[in-house]
Amino acid sequence: MTVTSLKRSRIATASLSIVLFALLLVVSIPMPAQADQPDVPQTRILTASSDDLPPVREVIVKFKSDVRAVSAQLHRNLRGDVVRHSEAGRFDVVRVPQGRAVDDVIQEYMASGLVEYAEPNYPRSGTWEPNDQLYPLQWHFDHVNAEAAWDIRQGGSSVIVVAVLDSGVAYENNTPYALAPDLAGTVFVPGYDFVNSDDHPNDDHWHGTHVTGTIAQTTNNGLGVAGLAFGVSIMPVKVLGDDGKGVVADVVDGIYYAVDHGANVINMSLGGDGRNQAEADALAYAYEHGVVVVCSAGNKYVEGNPIQYPAAYESAIAVGATGYDKTRASYSNTGTYIDIVAPGGDGSYSVLQQTFSGAYNNFGFYYAQGTSMAAPHVSAAAALLLSLNAALTPDEIRFILESTAFDLGPDGWDEEYGHGLLDVAAALSLVVSVATPEVVTNLADGVQEQEATLHGVVLYDGGEGCDYSFQYGTVRGALDQQTGWVEGELGSGDPFDAELSGLQKGATYYFRARARNSAGIGYGEELSFTTLPDAPPSFTATPDEHMPFYRINLEWTSGAGASDTFIVAKVGAYPGDYPEDREDGVVVYDGPGESFVHSGLDDGTTYHYRAWSRVEDHLGEYVWSTDSVTATATTEVEPDLDYFSITLQPGWNMVSVPLKMRNMSIDSVFAGSVAVYTWNPGSKSYTTPDYVTPEKAYWVAVTSLTPLNWTGVPVSAWYSPITTGWNMIGSVYSGGDPVAVSSLGEAPQGSILRNAIYHWNPISKSYESSMSIVSGIGYWLATTLDCNLTMPAP
To answer: Is 772 a catalytic residue?
Structure first.
């Protein structure tokens, strides 16, 4: 599994229990009557209204084009803290130091003569804001740029489902439980209660209802508060009990349930100490099925800051909390697993949503704080992104949210704020204004045994610089390996490449180019290449022991990655002239084996061999080894030839061949036969041979009297290993004199039964006992031990 993430290494410990990460504050705003205006108490904790937002403390500074290089020095001289740079507008946003007036800083920049303008970074409100009566108290939505986001996408799509794994949700009237009034217009899909094992995941705690409101509270209904991704569907999955606690097993079951029942996003505002493999596997399952998982990072900073799970798993987006001042909330965990932060409240300012207290139908608008309250902001942002483009993957959602977050703390990622504070509008803007790149995969080159260079082109960058990478693997359509993303800032028409090493030899690889920007990942067509096999590492040529005049035995070791070996022979003077290429000579072998008898040769002749390895690609084309190996052998000069004739009777004949001939193939030696078999004493069965040898006997079937006339080198003696039991043995060229059975030799002595030697009479169709070995006849011989048999000259 590959997850695009900047999470660092983890610490594995035993898993304990799961608890929610939130604190419900006692200050609440009671539910108004349907026609009444809400009674908003003017307490200190409720002062997070738009009238109380801090004054402008930032200045937009644009330098003249010819002095841009000295801008950093001027910022230092004027103690200007650059919080971001706008590439589009070519300006810097500078935070005004405490104790200094914005107007004074502007005058100092203008007085330098280096800037085109310096002006206040005035606030702007969205063109749409919900009419929910308590919305002005939801300061946390302002912190994530909600109104600007709603200008891009006014709520989410009901097709997108967010599963809330929590204490349940007040989603239905089911005595004693009740539907929260400000969730009456929210779309719910069926969920499950894993605590009580039923189909009614009602909230009996308060936490899950509050979390759900941040995601999808019924909005713009003139009542209560707003939800960030109102309009999306909610799947309530109860995994925590009425005390706000639960166990890993229920959480794991809840994850699988949500994935298998169509969730696009899973929000888990819960966690605990200790890594658990079952939980990790469940999150990996969600990731592999394209589900975005968002988890609260934990509220245990002051308790030793232990790593919290499931937030710390690689496939989860771990969310820390910030307060009203946009600094880390005092309780919020830090660590290598923090990905992003969102408002969770701290001190006097907390997150406002509807839930109940006491009786399950005692609803009010309650403040709560914790990373539990931060996480649903991120889940809602993911749901809005998917509402714009449902094809976005978990990796793409993560990339968009992290790359558009407002950086807090040290530059770049850090353990307190991750990639920074969630900016929903910036995230949506990327998806709307930037198109997914269009990519072309080009053919690979530089293909060797274990290396290749892949190529691609960004056909269209989608309006934004692109990173690039390649996917590859040995299974078509299942590319399980990838090169790392390279931040190339590639534009339309820009080529890119990657060098691969450590590949399998002789293997077909499939690959495709890909490029990404903030809108998503574009993929090129899947192409392929096949790495080269190694040449055979060893190769020998030796005149055949029994037929050195006409046969050469070739033996080799297959090259790594090879499916076949291809051998060409050429006659020449020794040490002479090897075949130069695969077309220079005669092909003597082409197949998957590691040995071959080159037969039918001329005596006293030198043969030069060259061998290559090869493998087929997926189109059936051959891919050859770069290198080849050579071997040479010279056949012996044949002695004087002799002649031998035998006439086969109709039916079966048991014969032997006492000559070494140029062509010892079955078809040549037993021309006119309809079947030929020999006995395999190892398997105790008959087999059909390819070649004839003098030391073996053969059953040959013919349909009529068949004379056979052979010319070759007489075999005056031979030895051969034979096995315990019955063996079919051949004869020698005796010149008319038979070999006495008593003269047969064996090692060890006493292995053969000399009174158990028989031959077949093809006329009487019966076996007869044999006292001597006659040329051209085949024999059955029994042994008591495995031994080496010697057939002497007469």
So the answer is: no
